[in-house]
C-alpha cells in the first residue's frame, strides 16, 4: 500500500515513517519545501499549493502535520489545511484518511484543542477515515520541563495529571490502523500510567541530575478546572509501553 505522510519530519512522523516501511508499505513523505528525492512530494497545507499532486496515486494518508500555537498560521494549516487535504483526497479517490489528534480535546476549552477538534470534524465528512488520539508525548513533556527549568523557580502545574506516552507506541497503532483500513472510529492511545506534573517534574529533575525548587502554577478558570479534573488522561485506557521513568533513563 502506498501511504502519504504529512508531518513526516515531526516527533510522531519520525516514528510513523519507519513503522510503515517495516510493515512493507511504500511511504511517500510530504513537505512544503522542495522535495529532496522521489520519496517526497512538495505541497503546502497553508495555501493548498501542490496538494492535488501530493495525493495522486496514494491509497491512504497519515495526516500528522500540525503547527500549534502559531496564531493565524495554525488556523491555516491545522483547520483550513486539513480541509484542503481532505478535499484533494476526495478528488483523487484516496481510500483512507487517518488523522492524528489529541486526547481530551472534547473537554478542554483551549484554542488549539478546539482547532484540532475542528480538524477531526472535517476529516469525518466526505472521506473514509480513522482518527488516532494520543496523550502527551514523552519528548514534548521533556521540552516543556526543560524550558521551565531555565528559571530560578521551576513553574509546574503541580496538580494537573498527565499520561505520557512513547511516540513509537502511537506510531505502531497508527500503522495498525492504516493496515486495517478506515474504521470511522476514534482510537485512543494513552501512556501506561497517570502522574501529576509535580511527579513528572520531580522524576525529570532526578534523572537529569538537576536541582530546582518547584513553583506550583495555578491554571485559572475553566481551562485549569478541566486540566485538574484529568481531561488530559484516560486512566482506564492504558497502553503498554515505556513509562515516564523508563523513557527518562533510556
Automatic annotation (TrEMBL):
Cross-referenced Pfam families, in alphabetical order?
A: Epimerase
| GO molecular function term, any single one | protein-containing complex binding
Which ranges carry the NAD-dependent epimerase/dehydratase domain? Answer: 3-101
Its signal peptide is none
> What domain of life is recorded for the organism?
Bacteria
Output this protein's name.
Uncharacterized conserved protein YbjT, contains NAD(P)-binding and DUF2867 domains
The organism's taxonomy opens as:
Bacteria, Bacillati, Actinomycetota, Actinomycetes, Pseudonocardiales
